[in-house]
Amino acid sequence: HSQRLICSVATEPVLQQTEEAKMDAPKEIFLKDYKLPDYYFETVDLSFALGEEKTLVNSKITVSPRVEGSSSPLVLDGHDLKLLSIKINGNGLKDAHYQVDSRHLTILSPPSGAFTLEILTEIYPHKNTSLEGLYKSTGNFCTQCEAEGFRNITFFQDRPDIMAKYTCRIEADKLLYPVLLSNGNLLEQGELEGGKHFALWEDPFKKPCYLFALVAGQLESRDDTFVTRSGRNVQLRIWTPAEDLSKTAHAMYSLKAAMKWDEDVFGLEYDLDLFNIVAVPDFNMGAMENKSLNIFNSKLVLASPETASDADYDAILGVIGHEYFHNWTGNRVTCRDWFQLSLKEGLTVFRDQDAGPMAHPVRPHSYIKMDNFYTGVREGLFSSFLGAEVVRMYKTLLGSEGFRKGMDLYFKRHDGQAVTCEDFFAAMRDANGVDFANFLLWYSQAGTPIVKVASSYNAEAKTFSLKFSQEVPPTPGQPIKEPMFIPVALGMLNSSGKDLPLTSVFHDGMLQSIASNGEPVYSTVLRVTKKEEEFIFSDITEKPVPSLFRGYSAPIRLEADLSDDDLFFLLAHDSDEFNRWEAGQLLARNLMLTLVADFQQNKPLVLNPKFVQGLKSILIDSSLDKEFIAKAITLPGEGEIMDMMKVADPDAVHAVRSFIRKQLASELRAELLNTVKNNRSSEAYEFNHPNMARRALKNIALAYLASLQDEESATLALNEYKSATNMTDQFAALAAIAQNPGKTREEVLADFYNKWQDNFLVVNKWFALQARADIPGNVENVRNLLNHPAFDLRNPNKVYALIGGFAGSPVNFHAKDGSGYKFLGEIVVQLDKINPQVASRMVSAFSRWRRYDETRQSLAKAQLEMIVSANGLSENVFEIASKSLA
Ligand code: PHE
Ligand code: ZN
Questions:
Q1: Whole-angstrom Cα distance, residue 136 to residue 54?
Q2: Is the pLDDT assigned to residue 368 strictly greater than 50?
Q3: Contact, 692 vs 310, CB < 8 A?
Q4: How confident is the model at residue 379 (pLDDT cuts 50, 70, 90)?
Q5: How far apart are CA 568 and CA 855, in angstroms?
Q6: Cα dist. 666→50, 80, 629, 662, 669 in Å?
């Protein structure tokens, strides 16, 4: 076994293992061990001869040593490649001068000074079911290289700090593969003998190899142009199989909107004359930002009103934007190493206005298999990273202008470089000349800070005090935590619900003005940096209700001393929409937790009339935005409640959530019926806020009503299903009907499948709906669906729909007889042989097994142990499973 150059073995083995197993175990890599590469690559000329049985890859690299005169061994990554030849400066290299194994190629003593290295390998894309590297998707060739897929194509220093200029020549059968694409500009194309043709592409920008891409196949394009603000014409092309072309209009709209937005908000223009997007049906993730040749999961490109829901339209808008924005945040400025992932992902997710908390720290300190960083699955396919929350804190602290200054300096300093999160921090700090204290801890200290707030009003002095105390819970490897730098955006509501003016605050022995140009403000940002600290506001004329962490100003868990009455008040009046929603969620969480305790003690469940009244007033308030109403009347998910329990009890949580839903539906029946009736529309589908909000509100009302399981609601849902003219409404009605086991459910599910069996994206919705059903014993249905002709373990979307859907259903996955765990365990082992990345995303459903009762713990643990001991397990699955057991 050769030792990896850049990796060190973990000092503490993850598991007790035999000596032999230890040698084979994947090596853990640490951030602190980063070393500059010994060699840089200047140019890379790739040449592909694509074939049905094998593909030849020739790679010609100009290499230069980092330190002049050094000739240490050059270690290249390569995964299961067949090496055909190596040349240095044009001369074949003798066997004695290199070593090759299943993971590396080592050139033992390279010439000192610059040289060219030429390597010829043979690969088998048609056998590549991992969908990393070069593979085939429904007959077409495509690539996926992030994070470490390029090593499946050719031997290379597969690390993002190796940035080079690429050319790519593709040769293939002209009939089978009429379209040949790679990064950059097309230099040349032409006919070859034997029915073949070729294309030569050149990318003028330096890039890391994870941004390389190649596509070859039978595709057609929707074409458009974008005129940049400096007046350049950019050709836009979205490629799909001919029959899907009509479904790309929304994707093109989304792309142009993103290009415009980046110019308007950040002054960032696209930097080439051509931008390609290709949609492929087999893809592990959502999409990939390869330079000028984005490759997308079809799910995030194809949409028509009949086949895609509002959520799909929204996701397409978001992800097309996300990948486009990577051109600057990720591609022009990239990551030094994979510990810096949030440098590009956090920033880019922030830029696409997305957000979402995740359990692990933004930048963990070690990893085995990079792909597992990407496993935080939200909304099915697309993961969002806590890093976005961190970026948002910079903006909260600096304001829009200060943040923009920081971004400008970041690009000025680092364009064309591979950098770290500290570099981003330094740009933000230096551009604004501010003291960021220990802000960098957000990148290294794991665990969500818990912030307690105690408030008191002094009527005589007209002061209002807020005492903050923070605690970061210990996490594995980090027992003792430092206090964090926490920006607290806040306001105060007077008794009529209006924001009180804020003028000054006493803190650290000083009275500071918070007025702006002498004018009072209605919201301000405090910098909380100590374990305990007090802020005393002056000139507060009446006892206020504080609105804390407005706009979710920091990714923390808040424990404030607010009463239920305060929360109802905030829910009704807060000028900050996030906090108004959050107040309702907090009330619902508290209510659910109380009822869960009652349920566990066999007490009868009774719904607090105040809660019903609170939701009712929201539901009938015509001054409110409909999307807000829809969100505000949606109860927190079962997973969220389980997370808050000492011992998670899926049955109790499910029973309580169902009880509340049904009780609300019966008490607000008239209002819900009106909501459905008043929010129908006979007009053609439109993707815009008012229409989406209207549909969302109508459909949540319909779902509530269906939970009543009575004749009238059943008829209503069936009528909605039959009269629907778009997928949003049709699917919502189907889901409402499918809540209730019985003949209607089965008939409508069958009808839906018959209608849509030729559209694999719609069929996936159908799989997912059945997979996550809470009807008793659903594991058997899911097992049967594995054998459905439309199902295929090799297609990630189908796995995420059926297996992922099931693993996300609290009652059936966590069935107390262990049937759900057993099912997932079996599938993971099977899936791992086909696609380790997809398998590891599935195995992560087990990762929180310690949160459950002893019976469930031992059942889940047994499955994890079974998985870890399976023969030939991938590194991806091994990392997740073994870390869960550790
Ligand atoms: N970088 C991709 C994105 O931002 C996500 C991705 C990660 C895709 C790893 C494939 C592999 O969307
Ligand atoms: Zn991204």
A1: 12
A2: no
A3: yes
A4: very low
A5: 39
A6: 63, 61, 18, 6, 5
Predicted confidence (pLDDT) at residue 380 exceeds the cutoff of 60:
no
Of residues 355 and 474, more confidence is placed in: 474
Which residue's CA is the nearest one to ligand 1's atom 3?
288
| Whether the predicted pLDDT of 10 surpasses 70 | no
Q: 678: which 2 tokens? A: 């008043």
Q: Which of 148, 151, 285, 378 to mutate to test the pocket of ligand 1 (most atoms within 8 A of CB)?
A: 285
pLDDT digits (tens, 9 = 90+) for 620-676: 999 999 999 999 999 999 999 999 999 999 999 999 999 999 999 999 999 999 999
pLDDT at 248 > cutoff 70? yes
Distance CA 576, CA 580 (A): 6
In degrees and rounded to multiples of 5, residue 186 shows phi and psi of -80, 120
Q: How many CA atoms lie within 13 A of 408 on its CB side?
A: 12
Check if the interface score ipTM surpasses 0.95.
yes
Run of H or E residues at 486: strand 486-493
* pTM of full prediction above 0.90: yes
Which ligand 1 atom is nearest residue 286's CA?
A: 12
What is the residue with the minimal CA distance to atom 5 of ligand 1? 288
What is the pLDDT averaged over residues 510-537? 95
Q: Poorest-confidence range of 277-281, 327-331, 364-368, 559-563?
A: 364-368
Counting atoms of ligand 1 from 1, which one is nearest the CA of 283? 10
Q: Would you give the end-to-end CA distance of the chain in angstroms?
A: 26
- Using an 8 Å Cβ cutoff, are 761 and 768 in contact? no
Say whether 534 is catalytic.
no
CA of 315 to the centre of ligand 2 (A): 13
- How many CA within 13 A on the CB side of residue 279? 27
Q: CB under 8 Å, gap of 24 or more: what pairs does 571-574 form?
A: 571/614, 571/618, 571/632, 572/497, 572/614, 572/617, 573/493, 573/497, 573/498, 574/491, 574/493, 574/497, 574/547
Residue of 802, 814, 808 lying closest to 849 (CA atoms): 814
Amino acid 21: pLDDT: 41
Q: Which of 28, 323, 389, 638 is catalytic?
A: 323
pLDDT computed for residue 476 by the predictor: 79
Mutate to test the pocket of ligand 1, among 212, 288, 294 (most ligand atoms within 8 A of CB): 288
